[in-house]
What we know:
- With 266 residues, the chain is mainly α.
- The chain has helices spanning 5-18, 54-82, 85-98, 100-109, 113-128, 137-140, 150-156, 175-187, 189-193, 200-216, 218-226, 230-249, and strands at residues 164-167, 171-174.
- The protein has one domain.
- Helix 7 packs across helix 12 (230-249).
Amino acid sequence: MHPSSIPARLGLLAGLALFCAPPHAARAQTLPDVEASPSETPSPDLAAPNDPWEGFNRGAFKFNRGFDRFLIGPMARGYMKVTPRVVRGRVSSFVANLAEPRTAINDLAQGRPRAAGVTASRFVINTTAGGLGLFDVGGKLGLEGHKGDFGQTLGRYGARPGRYIVLPLMGPTTLRDGAGRLVDMMTDPVAMATAGGATMFGSIRSTATVLDGRANADGFFRALDDAADPYAMMRSAYLQNRADLVRQARGGVQVLPDFDAATIEP
Length: 266
């Protein structure tokens, strides 16, 4: 194997392994809840699970659980054991900061320029004054962070989730969110600026993202071990998390930006 391909392969493995972790509140901040008006029709994201491929999905879920049990899980628990909580907090801030440009792009695509302005401001402040994102200075200034992706953007404009699917090494998704994930990966500004996983920085970013996400989700994984039906629990958690993100994005469209307010107005 050519030496220059090693970082790329490590980055690819880490990027794939990341999606073995489920959506979890500890992995990303989200926008404040938005109450739906009584006249609104129920979101299609909240309907009964659209899971016609359950047989395949359960097999992929079992494979992913084994992969996590013998590789990613032990790595994450070792990371948690040897790394002080305060250091893990800095890693979480670093990882979240690198996702801010992608979130800002999706904020704009969702017609929310104020949210995009807050996100962009957070990225600039935390990258500079926060030491490359190790400290959330923007949050201390009242600029609250949130999560945004292209699957959420598609849902904002009415795209239904489609069928639920569990992919080997990639974890749970839906047809809509899987397509959105591909778009996010191909248009990630930070990855494009740093040549993605083909660089040492890309490999470090991918590895840090995997360890941080899995460590933050460790409580959820332990709960899966005690669940009567871990597959159904994972499916429910994923679909509810995605439905909530889309519901937040549908909270309203801003016409004019207002950078005077520090809070995000969805």
